[in-house]
Amino acid sequence: xxxxxxxxxxxxxxxxxxxxxxxxxxxxxxxxxxxxxxxxxxxxxxxxxxxxxxxxxxxxxxxxxxxxxxxxxxxxxxxxxxxxxxxxxxxxxxxxxxxxxxxxxxxxxxxxxxxxxxxxxxxxxxxxxxxxxxxxxxxxxxxxxxxxxxxxxxxxxxxxxxxxxxxxxxxxxxxxxxxxxxxxxxxxxxxxxxxxxxxxxxxxxxxxxxxx
Amino acid sequence: xxxxxxxxxxxxxxxxxxxxxxxxxxxxxxxxxxxxxxxxxxxxxxxxxxxxxxxxxxxxxxxxxxxxxxxxxxxxxxxxxxxxxxxxxxxxxxxxxxxxxxxxxxxxxxxxxxxxxxxxxxxxxxxxxxxxxxxxxxxxxxxxxxxxxxxxxxxxxxxxxxxxxxxxxxxxxxxxxxxxxxxxxxxxxxxxxxxxxxxxxxxxxxxxxxxxxxxxxxxxxxxxxxxxxxxxxxxxxxxxxxxxxxxxxxxxxxxxxxxxxxxxxxxxxxxxxxxxxxxxxxxxxxxxxxxxxxxxxxxxxxxxxxxxxxxxxxxxxxxxxxxxxxxxxxxxxxxxxxxxxxxxxxxxxxxxxxxxxxxxxxxxxxxxxxxxxxxxxxxxxxxxxxxxxxxxxxxxxxxxxxxxxxxxxxxxxxxxxxxxxx
Lengths: 212, 422
Hints:
Chain A is α/β, with parallel strands linked by helices. Chain A has helices spanning about 10-20, 35-40, 60-70, 85-95, 110-120, 130-140, 145, 150-160, 165-175, 175-190, 200-210; strands spanning about 1-5, 25-30, 45-50, 80, 100-105, 125-130. Chain A folds into 2 domains: about 1-135, Response regulator (Rossmann fold, 3-Layer(aba) Sandwich); about 140-210, Winged helix-like DNA-binding domain superfamily/Winged helix DNA-binding domain (Arc Repressor Mutant, subunit A, Orthogonal Bundle), CATH 1.10.10.10. Chain B has 3 domains: about 10-205, no CATH class; about 230-295; about 300-420, 2-Layer Sandwich (Heat Shock Protein 90). In chain B, helix 3 (about 30-40) packs across helix 7 (about 110-135). At the A-B interface, helix 1 and helix 5 of A face helix 11, helix 12, helix 13 and helix 14 of B. Chain A: Keywords: DNA-binding, Phosphoprotein, Transcription, Transcription regulation.
């Protein structure tokens, strides 16, 4: 795939380039948000990977640029990386539609997992860092309905949020596809969410629910 | 600096120290007499007013505040002797409404000083003042004595020192004595009046302005130190984010690649690389927590509501958050409020055994109110160094107030008011 990486820290830029090169992708890099917009305008990549905090203000320029790119090129897959996760950022991204991802930079270290997530995003899936889900699950006002979930169902919920398909979840948990489908239906029913087989809509629904 | 020194206003005290002839010819002795002779009128009115208030049960408590109007009259009367006057020591920062005014005045120590002055003044000083000032009419009587003798021939004064001048021209001796005594009495009465004004000033004026200035400077420098600390925290956060955190993330990526290349082979090296990967991951998570505690990026990006919601998410005790902010408060207020909520929730988790806590933040144009309550066992002691002292410092630097109610058995309510000088 043709990938544009926006990241102001040279070290991380090199690390990402090295990893994605290794998997046979073509990588171009930029160091800030305006550079990212210009680079994508010059030649549309298959997927964009961007840091959130970048010059000049070191706030959430990367995220803003990612959302701007989505406006200019609807459906352009974007994976946002950050040193820490904010479910608000996750929500903004997920609301931008399909083919978005939001991960902690730590996840890149799990190379195979990271590259798989990038593929999912490029394929129009949605990937949200388990940390976001963990934090949302920890929110107290969520406790009551979530307490109705069994611990296995909660595991499945976290995997849904990460954008896993029923099949992938089944492999992760070493159970049958049918069992996962049943879990998913139970979760959606317990949380009063509309049943959905489409991954992105499932993630969206779960996150919307978790945000309350 | 102004090159022309301001003319110091003339006062009775300066006139006293000046040329005797000029002093005797000036209005000061007469003004001093007027000052001393007029005091009994407010004194009488005050006593009447207090008796009336005490007679009506519903407003009896208001008698406690009667020192305020009397003191105002007294500060105004001082101008007879000292035109510079006396500044009112009452604070102008009164909450709106009658209750706000009453509450502020009842809490001010000045109010009680004024009440004490009113009592001492009305029951003693005012009458002593008048008695001293009566020396002046007595001397005037001597001066005018010949006129009396002419107008009232049947008037027979008692002899004074064996001398009774009921006839002219002997009566003019009294005039001579009176004229001689007049400057003496003038000095005496003016001197007394100056002393009285000094007493009034010491009781009814704000404390020494030099101390005021020093206090203001101290408060400012404390605020500057805190601002500098907040700025420093933000800088440290930036440096850690751009430095150590990025390096560790890079290390994690490198180790990740190494693991990829060693995939499926179990050798001592791969075990070590796995271990290094785990350790780097743990270090990064710990560093993330540390950086968050120094200054959360979410506070900079999204403001107080978002940052407090995050604090609540991190709290081991379930927390309800209820925030209503019209706009974003200033950075120091925001940082202080976040710090206060964070510390308070830490205290709740550590000491209270609470099952539930609540954070409420409200703001209007003038102040921001933070309330953190829990249903724990109470007994939080602000002096026992449970972090409450630090909170009080944060609040007081911004001119805020902090109150803790924590009866044994709970509930504990921490309330902080921060002025937002918008």
